[in-house]
Amino acid sequence: MARLQSTEIEALRAAAPPLPLTIAPSVSSDLYKSPYTRAKPPAKRFDDHFSIESRNFSGSALKKGSSPSGPRKIISLGTGRPTADYYPWESITLGEAPPVPTIKTTTKPNLHLPNRQENGHSAHTIAKNGATYNLSIALNYCLANGSAHLLRFITEHVELVHNPPYADWATFLSCGATAATEAAFRIFCDRGDTVVAEQYTYPGTLESADLNGVRVYGIEMDANGLRPDVLDEVLSSWNDAQSPKPRVLYTIPTGQNPTGASQHLERRRAIYEVAEKHDLIIIEDDPYYFLRMGPYYDHDQDANGSASADDKAARIFHTESIPSYLTLDTAGRVVRIDSASKILAPGLRAGWVTASRQIIDKFTAYQEVSTLAVSGPSQLMLWHLLDENWGHDGFTAWLVDLSREYRWRRDVLLGACNYYLPRKIVQWNAPEFGMFLWVKIDWRQHPQLESSSELSLEEVGAQI
């Protein structure tokens, strides 16, 4: 089936309605999807998967009065928005890097960058007034879905990369992956419910679940991540009399935190089949998806990334790509969480969530009465960098180069592990994605084990 290509973006935008010029216009990712999506079937509805709380999510009454367009000279008197005349900032200047730096790492990390002119950086000033997306708009209120300019780019990005196989998918801008995960627990879980996840997972997720009164049941893992056979066995033998059967799977499928494991394509398909069998919602928390480093070869410097040429880095990036759960999702049961934190900067507190329209409406309604929206300056910075400066091809080039840089750093770390750590008592698997190396130490091999108590070992820094 035909799908959107980056070369079609310009024509797609030309055929679409113009971007709204009002403050906090009502926008939807539906406005920015390509015609290819219309030929796809609709997603399944998941009414019975929503929590008691989220079934009553109705959003903000004030936000419902927002219109998608309108004359710029009309001033709304009903929402309490301050006038931009009294904002104490007149402009903001952004020094932005090119998508591929002119100075690259080959034999050592580029830790001391020269000034931005020498390194290909460019400075752009955005004034309070004038442009269609200016500082006065960014500093004002914004609807939960996000600014039209940035939402358009992110919607295009999702279709280019993931191409969800159903028609009524939607994307909205979240205040980072942690906020999106917390919202997902509220949307799908009642207090006392259980979520299944990898047996080792991100502590912030465990704490967010605990905050919402949700128990996390760990599923056994292997070198390729969560085991689908164990997941199926646990769910098939679940005792409903003790607690309600889980209806949500939370997973970090790529460069898993903290183990570094990545689910290959067949593993993802097998897990998705289990989710279909047991009617699970899959929360796909995937902040490391674009950090693609490829295999590591012990004692083979040329085969590793420290001497990679640019074409090799690009080849690794594209060949190591694994289809996301969103790409495999024929039913609309996947909630994909993306983040700007690991690929741009964590202080932006920005990301995006993609799921069926029915599910995204719940996220939007919750965000309208909680965090409201991603910070306006963060959205402005992201839009100007990604859309005005880089474009979709430039963004991909940035991700290729970023993966190459992290590949170099991973190889240095693994080289040190090979040299300094004794294989007799230490084991690890080289991560091909992400930021985590999971090192297993057989503490039973400690020479003082028989003569020392656990307490005395802990006193010298050994955690058991």
UniProtKB/TrEMBL annotation:
Coiled coil regions in record: none
Alphabetical list of SUPFAM superfamilies matching this protein: PLP-dependent transferases (SSF53383)
CDD domains: AAT_like
Residue ranges annotated for the Aminotransferase class I/classII large domain, each copy included: 170-442
InterPro entries: Aminotransferase_I/II_large (IPR004839), Class-I_PLP-dep_aminotransf (IPR050859), PyrdxlP-dep_Trfase (IPR015424), PyrdxlP-dep_Trfase_major (IPR015421)
Designated name of the protein: L-kynurenine/alpha-aminoadipate aminotransferase
Gene Ontology molecular-function annotations: 2-aminoadipate transaminase activity; aromatic-amino-acid transaminase activity; pyridoxal phosphate binding
Keyword Transferase: yes
